[in-house]
Design brief:
The complex is a heterodimer of chains A (242) and B (199).
Chain A (H helix, E strand, L loop, with lengths): L15 H37 L32 E6 L5 E4 H6 L3 E8 L5 E11 H8 L7 E6 L5 E5 H4 L4 E7 L2 E2 L9 E4 L11 E7 L29
Parallel strand pairs in A: 1-10
Antiparallel strand pairs in A: 1-2, 3-4, 4-7, 5-6, 5-10, 7-8, 7-9
Chain B lengths: L1 H20 L1 H7 L2 H14 L1 H7 L3 H11 L3 H11 L15 H25 L9 H27 L2 H9 L4 H7 L1 H17 L2
Helix pairs in contact in B: 1-2, 1-3, 1-4, 7-8, 10-11
Classes of the chains: A alpha+beta (242), B mainly alpha (199).
Chain lengths: 242, 199
């Protein structure tokens, strides 16, 4: 005796799983579109809250703005007035070593620019102060064969590069101050490079060596696929040389 | 198997995320290139166990059950809102309504994280979308996922029989009768149908 087919079980309910998934995708897309407004709004809330908060606990709340600590090594030695040294060498007439006090004694330049990381975080209109890289290069006397600069750092691992033309820009600093305070260890102090028109990976922290080279030597992140010329969007690439 | 693999990948992804995102941890651990590489690959591979699981018809059946709401699921949700915990007020099939919602949510969340993550990983990808927006969504959703996952693991901690089921594929009949009665009923009805068809 033939049996009638049983109706398929469980195939009739609403597909709430799929709808929830699609709903989250939609929220994600909306989040992407609304991000600038949401971020500004939240930073406003954090700003007012921190003003009213004597405990400082609001500082623990997630803050999408502000700087983020990136280091490629496990730990970085701390340096200060007593033991910090900056060495200028390579294809130069007068190689020189500067202590922190030497750098502070030189004419200081102030550059205010937006800081952008390739990951997406940014800190707008950040003031940096320090010695123009061009001034240090002139003091050392760049030889004719030198076409690029290699930067090395006292974390023992990080390196960066600039072409000579880029290095001579008036918005490239050997920076000592950020946001009108001496650069702290966590922000790459006491001395870091600041290359204002480029992504922040070019602005090598914990700077200890400036070497004039025959050609561009790719630095740490360039060896891992990052562009040699990390220009920010809309920058004037052939702007003032010092 | 799918769950175990996915769980470990997710844990790896979250731990490396913490080392990248939380300032004090980033300063302690550093090693950004290593953390980023492990984070990116564990993230990208997250859906892989799921995709491989699709080759199994049992897994596909489970997904179908996770997807569909039955009439009694609404009652489960209402009871959950009212904090009624007695098994009689929480009717469920193999998966209860909360588990169904969680599955849909986490699947969507992983996809959004992958998309925003890929935007952060590859600078030149879809340049029309701002990286600042991408990282904002990625950060916010990471917090949400952390909170939801703590809830997920808390629920698992409170239910040893459910954990047994996930580990071994088998659960006690009386537990099923109490907490997933409609599943037991469906399984028993299928057994009956199979017996009748064989005649």
């Amino acid at each position: 005796m033939a049996m009638a087919q049983e109706p398929k079980r469980g195939a009739d309910g609403a597909p709430v799983g799929r709808r929830t998934l699609l709903g989250v995708l939609g929220l994600g897309a909306a989040g992407l579109a609304a991000a600038p407004y949401l971020q500004r709004g939240w930073e406003g809330v954090l700003g007012s809250a921190s003003q009213l908060d004597p405990t400082g606990l609001t500082g623990l709340l997630p803050n999408p703005g502000g700087f983020r600590y990136y280091s490629i090594v496990g730990s970085v030695p701390r340096k200060d007035e007593a033991n910090y040294e900056l060495r200028i060498d390579g294809l130069v007439d007068r190689p020189k070593t500067y202590m922190l006090s030497d750098l502070r004694a030189l004419p200081q330049t102030r550059v205010v620019h937006d800081v952008l990381c390739t990951d997406g975080w940014r800190v707008d209109k950040t003031p940096f102060e320090g010695v123009k890289l061009a001034d240090l290069l002139d003091d050392a006397g760049v030889r004719a064969k030198g076409t690029a600069i290699r930067f090395t750092c006292f974390d023992g691992a990080y390196s960066e590069s600039l072409t000579l033309e880029q290095a001579r820009r008036s918005d490239v600093l050997v920076a000592l101050n950020m946001q009108d305070k001496p650069i702290t260890h966590e922000h790459g102090g006491p001395v870091r490079l600041y290359v204002a028109p480029m992504y922040f990976y070019k602005s090598a922290k914990w700077l200890s060596g400036i070497s004039v080279t025959r050609k561009v030597v790719p630095g740490y992140w360039e060896e891992r696929g990052y562009p040699l010329d990390g220009w920010l969007d809309g920058e004037d690439r052939h702007s003032d040389a010092a | 198997m799918v769950h175990r693999a996915t769980g470990w990948l997710m844990l790896l992804c979250l731990v490396t995320a913490a080392c990248l995102y939380l300032g004090p941890l980033a300063q302690l651990v550093g090693r950004r290139h290593l953390m980023v590489t492990v984070h990116e690959w564990s993230g990208i591979l997250l859906p892989l166990p799921f995709l491989l699981g699709l080759f199994s018809s049992d897994f596909r059946t489970d997904l179908r059950m996770l997807n569909r709401f039955a009439v009694y699921d609404k009652r489960w949700l209402r009871s959950a809102r009212r904090r009624l915990t007695a098994p009689e007020s929480r009717p469920a099939g193999k998966f209860n309504a909360g588990q169904k919602l969680y599955a849909g949510w986490i699947a969507g969340a992983v996809l959004v994280m992958m998309f925003t993550g890929l935007l952060m990983w590859f600078m030149g990808l879809l340049p029309v979308i701002s990286r600042t927006s991408a990282i904002f969504v990625h950060d916010c959703l990471a917090w949400a996922i952390t909170i939801v996952l703590i809830g997920h693991m808390r629920k698992a901690y409170e239910d040893p029989e459910a954990r047994l089921g996930m580990r071994t594929g088998y659960v006690g009949r009386s537990w099923a009768a109490r907490y997933h009665a409609y599943w037991l009923r469906d399984v028993q009805a299928e057994d009956e149908t199979a017996k009748v068809d064989k005649k």
